[in-house]
Amino acid sequence: MVDCYISANSKYEFENNTFYKSGAILSKEDGSPMDESTFKSLIKRETSSFIHKTFSNIIVLVGAGASVLCTSGKIDKRFGKTVFMLADLINNTLKQNSNLFTLQELAQLCKYNVPVELVEQGGASKLNPSFNLEDFLSDLLSFEKYVSDADASKYVRSKSKIFELIVENTSYEYDNNCLKHSTFINTVSHLVRTPSVLTC
User: What is the pTM of this model?
Assistant: First the structure.
């Protein structure tokens, strides 16, 4: 099932064109099966119940993909990259440099137990969708003080290269024609009434 909206009182989800509220199958008022547009209208009504209030404080937490821009169904690589895209780039870059540990070698050294790659039929390998770059980096940093003297220099070079790649690939020029951060901030700012203020 795909979760669409979760609150303290209800949970909206769908699976195979069947729509649910708190586990119960939804239908229209006339008893006919629920359609997607009516389902979305119900969620809009739910969100309106808390969005159209006055707030004294608003905190917005955004993830690594907040600046990912999709055009024509594909990610525009000029802007933000997903964590998975970063992990794939890091994996491929480290494999090409014999002076650095590969991502898999680093994972084994720091006891990160999720394989970095999966081997597909035909022998090709691809990044494992279960590989979590953020969890791995946490382990990588924590393990650094335990690295043997023989591996320390290569370990530090590899770690530095990972962070260099992250900075390189998450730095981009802001283009307000493509990215709509200001639209979002303006929308949220209308929820705040004087004397309260919005701080970004």
Answer: 0.61
